[in-house]
Design a protein that fits this description.
Helix content is 36%, strand content 19%. It is built from ten helices and 13 strands.
């Protein structure tokens, strides 16, 4: 059932699917569409939404949340930094609301685990401001830097950050498989799904790949694989929702009907991606 983001269209398409005899629904995909569906009483069959509502809300009993929410990645990066013994962080954030959400998710989890946010730097391409950031990092107040940024901004900033402080980011910085494209991010820690980092993972090896496509398309391709696998469990009456070692991460079902993906930590080394121990253990609940 094709639909746009308008609440009426989403709800109408969902209702049509159920009336047509659907025993399970996968979707919708966007945050606004999931928000619209979660606010209705139409969810009467197991439904696996591929995003989270825009605000925390009590979900209908048959609605389950699974997706590629980047805020969860920021929390896991905070956990990873904590596991590496980091206690004082500087956060770099851009002007976008998306970046601010990432920064807040990281900060909340980092502080919850006993860390301190020493400073927050507003991203800029202005050289004098970048020099100030470089001097601040060199002062040694922080032992971690979190980049709530995409790849182009992270690459521009990287040369000002030096090598004395550990730098962390989400999968937003992992956008190309070619070493030359990643060389500017040398030393940066990040997390991503097994589909892109662990080709010898048993589940990854079981499915045909779409390597000619970009990494962003591959992430959604992998999302579809795990959504299908989860759907098989949801169709079983009184099924025991055991953890799934999926292509998008190690997946567990939380009490609030939200699936948590634990991702694989890695580091850019001379343009290549070096996989570290993974997935990130004890991910945020």
């Amino acid at each position: 059932y094709a639909t746009g983001d308008e609440a009426f269209d989403v709800v109408q398409a969902y209702e049509s699917a159920v009336v047509g005899g659907a025993q399970l629904v996968i979707g919708p995909l966007t945050r606004s569409a999931v928000t619209a569906l979660a606010g209705t009483r139409l969810v009467t069959v197991p439904t696996l939404a591929l995003n989270a509502p825009e605000v925390d809300t009590l979900l209908p009993p048959e609605l389950y949340i699974f997706g590629l929410q980047i805020e969860n990645e920021a929390k896991q990066v905070a956990q990873f930094a904590h596991e590496q013994g980091r206690h004082n962080a500087t956060v770099v954030v851009s002007e976008s609301s998306f970046s601010r959400r990432l920064a807040q998710a990281f900060a909340d989890e980092f502080v919850r685990r006993g860390g301190t946010i020493q400073d927050q730097f507003q991203y800029t391409s202005d050289s004098p401001s970048l020099m100030k950031l470089r001097d601040s990092i060199a002062s040694g107040v922080s032992d971690a830097i979190f980049l709530a940024l995409d790849a182009p901004r992270a690459k521009l900033l990287r040369s000002y950050l030096g090598n004395s402080v550990s730098i962390y980011a989400t999968s937003l910085v992992h956008t190309a498989a070619e070493p030359l494209a990643n060389f500017e991010l040398n030393g940066v820690y990040f997390i991503d799904m097994p589909w892109l980092l662990a080709p010898d993972h048993p589940a990854v090896m079981s499915y045909a790949r779409q390597d000619q496509a970009g990494l962003e398309f591959q992430r959604f391709y992998a999302l579809g694989i795990d959504a299908y696998r989860i759907a098989q469990d949801l169709l079983r009456p009184n099924a025991n929702q055991r953890p799934l070692d999926g292509v998008t991460g190690y997946i567990t079902l939380e009490r609030d009907h939200r699936y948590l993906r634990e991702l694989v930590p890695a580091q850019f080394t001379q343009g290549d991606t070096r996989v570290l121990a993974g997935p990130v253990s004890g991910s945020p609940r």
